[in-house]
Amino acid sequence: MSVKDVIKKSILESDAYNQAISLSTIGTIVIDLILALIMGLVIYQIYKKFYKGVVYSKNYAMSLVGMTVLTCMVTLAISTNIIISLGMVGALSIVRYRTAIKEPLDLMYMFWAITSGIALGASMYILVLFATIIMFVLLLIFNKHGSSRGAYILVVHYKGDETGDEVIKLLRKVNFTVRSIIFRDDDSEMTLQLKCKNDNLTFVENIRNLKDVSDVTLLNYDGEYHG
Q1: Per-residue pLDDT averaged across 195-208, rounded?
Q2: What's phi and psi for 152, nearest 5 deg?
Q3: Residues 6 or more apart whose Cβ sits within 8 Å of residue 161
Q4: Which of 105, 19, 15 lies closest to 64 in space, CA to CA?
């Protein structure tokens, strides 16, 4: 008997090739899918709580739940039937996703949902539990120490170099960084990044009252600057 015949016989006689589903297998499938649904809802709530982007997408958040369940389903199918697993490898290899991920953290949540579904499909419950605890603790730490509260972008339009110097003097008690200065004939535009304690913004009114200042724009800084 050749090596090819031995491999073929071992596959045909294995449980993975058997199309029948036992009662224990059905129980495992039900438990894993229910836990995947619960895990997806947990990721959904964590994403909703810690989201710091500009526009919250409920559809994306709901897709995290479905992604966890569907990934678990795929893993269960692959692990219980070798024929289906070979077919799925071929089918999924031609799938291409074109949706752009605008927020970097959204990619992390998506990968979290996928890996949780895979681990739950493999019945690795302890791994999912510890990974979820670690991720939640990390998000708490980063959310507390990486908060952009009190951070602003100040844009001032004015005339004359002397007015620009006066703006800088009025900001002497504020932690600031000049990001850019644009000169247009007699008009100038100064962009500054500010960090204010207790959100004390009285300096904005003082800058606006300067003679040659045409307008002042103050924006809350969310941690991303595109200049």
Answers
A1: 74
A2: -140, 160
A3: 188
A4: 105
Among 171, 138, 137, 166, smallest CA distance to 152 is for 171
Within this chain, do residues 164 and 139 fall inside the same structural domain, yes or no? no
pTM of the model: 0.61
Which stretches of the chain are assigned E, i.e. beta strand? 151-159, 175-184, 187-195, 213-220
Range(s) of the domain holding residue 21: 3-145
Q: What is the pLDDT of residue 214?
A: 85
Q: How many domains are contained in the chain?
A: 2
What is the secondary structure of 42-67 as a DSSP string?
Answer: HHHHHHHHH--SSS--HHHHHHHHHH
Q: Are residues 22 and 81 in the same domain?
A: yes
Q: What digits encode the pLDDT tens for the residues 168-185?
A: 888 877 778 888 888 877
Poorest-pLDDT segment among 16-20, 57-61, 87-91: 16-20
